[in-house]
Amino acid sequence: MRILHVSDCYLPRLGGIEVQVGDLVRMQREAGHEVEVATATPGEPLSGVYRIVAKLPFDLPVHPFGVGHLLRLMRARHPDVVHVHTGAVSPFAWMGVRAAVRLGLPVVVTVHSMWDPVTRALYRGLRMLFEWHRWGLVGTAVSEAAALPIRGVAGRKVPVNVVSNGLDVSGWRSSAVVRREPDDKAVHVVAVGRLAPRKQPVRLLRLLKEARARVPQETPMRATIVGDGPARSQMERYLRANGMGGWVSLPGRYSRDQIRELLFSADVFVAPAPRESFGLAALEARAAGVPVVARAQSGVADFVRPGKEGLLGRSFEDLVASVARLAGDRELRESIAAHNRETEPVRSSWPMVLEGFEQCYRQARTGRG
């Protein structure tokens, strides 16, 4: 099958969408498909990647004449299906949708983010203006939590399937055989993510502070928060103001290999963002055998069940209680960790993800046919 992926952002940028689309392209090629990418992200030439780039401030991944460029590319490459990847608002990606619809090509649109009330209102307005719900699109979302608001806006004419983000599960499960050194008795809490205000990283520090206050002092704790972003300086001020620098560290951005190594020593993984559409870092932790604490309303709930793979909470207070409970209950931690090591998150394995998208491609092609 000839597949053309369209995404505002792509490698060499590093982010959730970029990494996931890059991995999907690689896995589809290994499965024997002819796969190409159209993106507005500048960068070095890559095989099968068409960079439709305009000279804009800050290298913004947008092109004012993207539809025309994409029309010419699609006419030249003749894809069997166009697979578009969007965040909350992705102008270049939606140009790809417009171009494919004008050429009568089957289109699958994957939404990688959670639509908040403002985003839902925006797409309702665009639906009234352009009637995009009549374009014959097939939608996918990365979790049930992310799919729910999209279905509410799209209506019955646009099927919205759930296809999980993909992960090489075996690569992360191998880390579970590594054990901490016996003399390291501190309960190690780990979080991974961009330090951006929408992720509420300072609220994460407050969560750790309140959880620490509930755990007996004779139980040592330490925490590592991996990532970088505009909220880092605010977090550093919070750590200084609350005397947490001795047990909470902010080491910055890690590579995936470094994160895998970090999870060797983790006892608890925390993913506190309430509007997390999926939570790839949480899935990596779960695959590595680490108990996960997350919001019940987030996409993490697709692969974490309370008491099985971790603990879920509907409020900040619930998350504090969950972290404190796991930190203070070694038997519960070890029980969940053993379950995570012995079972695979099958829905997120690449064979399942590839089959899920192929079903969507057939659905889109059938609709066009």
Describe this structure in words.
It is elongated, with a radius of gyration of 21 Å. Helix 4 (117-130) packs parallel to helix 5 (144-154) and helix 7 (201-214) packs across helix 11 (316-328). The chain has 369 residues and is of the alpha/beta class. Helix content is 42%, strand content 17%. The protein has helices spanning 16-30, 66-77, 91-102, 117-130, 144-154, 169-173, 201-214, 232-241, 256-263, 280-287, 316-328, 330-342, 350-368; strands at 2-7, 34-39, 49-51, 81-86, 107-111, 138-141, 160-162, 187-192, 221-226, 248-252, 268-271, 292-295, 310-313. Residues 15-169 form the Glycosyltransferase subfamily 4-like N-terminal domain.
Our estimate of the beta-strand percent is 15-25%
SSE pattern, N- to C-terminal: EHEEHEHEHEHEHEHEHEHEHEEHHH
Give the CA-CA distance, first to last residue.
16 Å
Number of discrete helical segments: 13
CATH topology of the largest domain: the name is Rossmann fold
List the uncertain runs: none
Structural class from helices and strands? Answer: alpha/beta
Question: What count of structural domains?
Answer: 2
Look at the structure and give the CATH class of the largest domain. Answer: Alpha Beta
CATH architecture of the largest domain: 3-Layer(aba) Sandwich
Mean pLDDT: 93
Task: State the major sheet.
Answer: 7 strands, parallel
Query: How many whole angstroms does the radius of gyration measure?
Result: 21 Å
What is the total tally of β strands? 13
GO molecular function, one term: hexosyltransferase activity
Protein name: Glycosyltransferase involved in cell wall biosynthesis
Keywords: Glycosyltransferase, Transferase
